[in-house]
């Protein structure tokens, strides 16, 4: 069978992240949304380290500042998912300097639901396509690899929980077999059967990444992450199985890589920056030269990242690159480098082919069945079986069952195996088929005989039972949700964009301070530090009470806006789920009601028949087979309710996915809030321990308005109580430590719960 092949270059898209202060050097070619020109005024050439002032680039598409995540998925992600479903390997990789939006594009913002990136959306699309495509049976596996310093780590390795340091984790190794195929040793593949399972893998991996990041000092900018979905599809009635991989790749920050290659620095120097991106450049250059027949060796093996992505670069894969840039003038140099790199990548040709194999197991089953039939045929032809004896009723019923199974089987290659073939049996089979055809004709393709109606009722009952169970689960979820605090913030929620998966940065406010002496200057600087975006609290009484401190912190915490927004969204989704659930229930009871009515009608009709002695007195009305118009109306009613039921049930299922996703985001933000608060509180305490407690204590809220005067350490109050660390968190409500404000208290409790749950889930994942 000739394999489907497509020969195409790597598609390149440019994404420009929004900025408050764009340089104004970027000019889009609006005629086709594919061209971009940089015009850097001469006076500004400090931003670009050469003498040109104009640069022009062409892309397959430009995703401008205002382009949202949904549009990005439509333009870049959905085609890649479709390719993977069709059996082609497919890769999307994001390339650009740190902070330009690679993680935002691939994984998404970690706070707001609308900011979901390509991975969660791809997962969603995959599972809804699996469900739609009932002809094919899919299996799906997930792995999540991080490459840091040219070493691979399994982000889904359960040892992440117990091992604090990255170096102590098992390394993922690249092995090559005799046929030159690569295998990754120690990289786990997790079978997933639902969207939730797959999302759990993503969240678990991201959490592990965030944890190891703290250990590595801002490593997210230096590590590559490869999220891989492996898909296997078996079409009914076919012996073939398609296998494909979807790689979603968040590369390390590309800053300064170009400078090393353009100024010809040595490899060793480049290594300190990011050797694997340097090797990526080399691979791209080599591929380009290969395209011009100038060379044949491609140095994939120089780094783990290029080895893992070998197929995505110049191999059997449909690949898309998203180049991300920041439009500020200070980033112009990097942005131009990124665009230059993308232009080179666009020249690479990949030859993707459908990965289709014969599945031996499927073939053996089919051939065995065929063989059995052929054996019987031979026996028959040789006259060994003779004419045969008449079948008993049981045997005939058994034969009819076999025939029905054969007719109902959707696999076009299915065979009918009736055991020993005899003339009598063959005649019987003919009779059975004739009956089946007549039956079908009578029903006009549908099924209106009583037998079939009963069958349908039984089926419906069955599926209702199943739906009942599912609804019970959903209703439970809604109930649970009600218990969560969900009051939306009054007034307009302020959107704060920040990557909450990273630990809080301690920001120095760079202000020149007229220092009187060193100690005072250090003190002044420390007092102006912010942790997680929140400055020092100067109210002693607030700090004395951890619960109050938490409320104080939360009110000023920038990430809180997103938490509130998600809470509001969750609330509206719950409301929607409740409404939809009610519709489902109504449709269901309607079906039940109509069903009972039909049964009642039938009983009445049967009674009538008995009374009238099988003789119909009504003119033009016969019993045999004709459906009572009233019953027909009710059946139509059932059909309609079934439709409404199905629609709303599907909607309810979608809502369930959304709700679970938002709940996870909330959990994550709350955990982040906790760790930021812990750090902030520690900073406050450290500060006070070093520089004494505060005079002017009760000026909370206006602390930046005037310089604060600090008491000497000798006069410091007794040491402040420490906020109960996680291990001491009481299982009961905090009691005296709660604030008294209902909403705040609920938040405090919910957030401990979230943290506990996250830890539990991670422990379970082991
Ligand atoms: P990178 O992974 O390239 O280092 P990030 O994806 O972490 O960069 O982006 C840096 C910050 O900018 C994050 O806080 C992110 O939420 C924000 N950001 C990036 N791109 C966008 C965008 N298109 N829209 C809104 N915010 C964005
Ligand atoms: Mg990133």
TrEMBL record:
GO terms for biological process: microtubule-based movement. Residues 560-604 form a coiled coil. It holds the Pfam family KIF9. The keyword Nucleotide-binding applies. The keyword Oxidoreductase does not apply. Residues 9-348 form the Kinesin motor domain. Residues 483-504, 609-632, 715-740 are annotated as: Disordered. One of its GO terms (cellular component) is microtubule. One of its GO terms (molecular function) is microtubule motor activity. ATP binds at residues 96-103. InterPro entries: KIF6/9_C, Kinesin-like_fam, Kinesin_motor_CS, Kinesin_motor_dom, Kinesin_motor_dom_sf, P-loop_NTPase. PROSITE patterns: KINESIN_MOTOR_1, KINESIN_MOTOR_2. Keywords: ATP-binding, Coiled coil, Microtubule, Motor protein, Nucleotide-binding. Residues 494-504, 609-621 have a biased composition (Basic and acidic residues). Belongs to the TRAFAC class myosin-kinesin ATPase superfamily. Kinesin family. This is Kinesin-like protein. It comes from Triparma verrucosa. The lineage of its organism: Eukaryota, Sar, Stramenopiles, Ochrophyta, Bolidophyceae.
């Amino acid at each position: 069978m000739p394999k489907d092949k497509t020969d195409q270059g790597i598609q390149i898209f440019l994404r420009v992240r929004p900025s408050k202060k764009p340089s104004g050097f970027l000019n889009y070619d609006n005629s086709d949304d594919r061209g971009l020109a940089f015009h850097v005024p001469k006076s500004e050439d400090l931003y670009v380290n050469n003498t040109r002032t104009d640069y022009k680039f062409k892309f397959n598409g430009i995703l401008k500042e205002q382009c949202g995540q949904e549009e990005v998925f439509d333009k870049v992600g959905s085609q890649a998912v479709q390719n993977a479903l069709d059996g082609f390997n497919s890769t999307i990789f994001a390339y650009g300097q740190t902070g330009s939006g690679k993680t935002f594009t691939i994984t998404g913002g970690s706070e707001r639901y609308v900011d979901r990136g390509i991975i969660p959306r791809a997962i969603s699309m995959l599972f809804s396509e699996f469900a739609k495509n009932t002809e094919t049976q899919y299996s799906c596996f997930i792995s999540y690899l991080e490459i840091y310093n040219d070493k691979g780590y399994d982000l889904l390795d359960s040892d992440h929980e117990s091992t604090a340091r990255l170096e102590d984790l098992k390394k993922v190794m690249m092995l090559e077999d005799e046929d030159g195929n690569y295998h990754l040793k120690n990289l786990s593949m997790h079978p997933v059967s639902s969207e939730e399972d797959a999302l759990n893998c993503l969240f678990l991996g991201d959490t592990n990444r965030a944890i190891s990041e703290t250990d590595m000092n801002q490593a997210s900018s230096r590590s590559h992450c490869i999220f891989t979905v492996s898909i296997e599809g078996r079409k009914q009635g076919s012996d073939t199985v398609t296998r494909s991989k979807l790689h979603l790749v968040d590369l390390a920050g590309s800053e300064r890589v170009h400078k090393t290659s353009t100024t010809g620095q040595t490899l060793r120097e480049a290594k300190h920056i990011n050797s694997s991106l340097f090797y990526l450049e080399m691979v791209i250059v080599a591929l380009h030269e290969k395209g011009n027949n100038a060379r044949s060796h491609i140095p994939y093996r120089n780094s783990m990242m290029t080895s893992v992505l070998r197929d995505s670069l110049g191999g059997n894969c449909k690949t898309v690159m998203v180049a991300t840039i920041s439009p500020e003038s200070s980033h112009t140099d990097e942005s131009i480098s990124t665009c230059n790199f993308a232009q080179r990548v666009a020249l690479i040709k990949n030859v993707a082919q459908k990965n289709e194999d014969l599945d031996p197991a499927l073939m053996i089953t089919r051939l065995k069945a065929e063989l059995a039939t052929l054996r019987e045929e031979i026996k028959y032809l040789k006259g060994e079986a003779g004419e045969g004896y008449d079948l008993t009723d049981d045997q005939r019923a058994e034969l009819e069952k076999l025939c029905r199974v054969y007719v109902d089987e959707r696999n076009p290659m299915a065979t009918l195996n009736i055991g020993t073939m005899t003339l009598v049996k063959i005649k019987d089979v003919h009779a059975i088929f004739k009956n089946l055809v007549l039956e079908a004709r009578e029903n006009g393709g549908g099924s209106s005989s009583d037998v079939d109606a009963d069958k349908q009722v039984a089926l419906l009952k069955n599926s209702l039972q199943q739906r009942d169970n599912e609804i019970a689960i959903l209703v439970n979820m809604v109930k649970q949700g009600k218990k969560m605090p969900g009051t939306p913030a009054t007034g307009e929620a302020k959107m704060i964009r920040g990557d909450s998966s990273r630990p809080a940065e301690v920001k120095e406010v760079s202000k020149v301070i007229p220092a009187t002496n060193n100690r005072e200057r250090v003190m002044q600087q420390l007092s102006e530090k912010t942790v997680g975006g929140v400055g020092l609290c100067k109210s002693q009484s607030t700090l004395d009470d951890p619960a109050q401190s938490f409320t104080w912190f939360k009110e000023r915490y920038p990430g809180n806006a997103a938490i509130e927004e998600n809470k509001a969204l969750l609330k509206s989704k719950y409301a929607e789920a409740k409404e939809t659930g009610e519709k489902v229930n109504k449709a269901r009871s309607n079906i039940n009601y109509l069903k009972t009515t039909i049964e009642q009608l039938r009983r009445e009709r049967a009674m009538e028949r008995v009374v009238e002695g099988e003789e119909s007195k009504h003119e033009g009305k016969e019993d045999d087979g004709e459906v009572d118009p009233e019953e027909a109306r009710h059946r139509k009613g059932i059909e309609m309710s079934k439709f409404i039921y199905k629609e709303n049930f599907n909607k309810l299922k979608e809502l369930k996915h959304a709700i679970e996703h938002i709940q996870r985001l909330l959990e994550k933000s709350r955990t982040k809030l906790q760790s930021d608060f812990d750090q902030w509180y520690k900073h406050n305490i450290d500060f006070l321990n070093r520089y004494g407690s505060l005079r002017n204590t009760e000026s909370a809220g206006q602390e930046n308005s005037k310089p604060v005067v600090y008491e000497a350490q000798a006069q410091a109050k007794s040491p402040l109580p420490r906020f109960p660390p996680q291990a001491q968190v009481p299982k009961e409500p905090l009691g005296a430590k709660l604030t008294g404000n209902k909403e705040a208290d609920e938040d405090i409790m919910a957030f401990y719960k979230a943290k506990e749950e996250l830890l539990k889930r991670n422990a379970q994942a082991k």
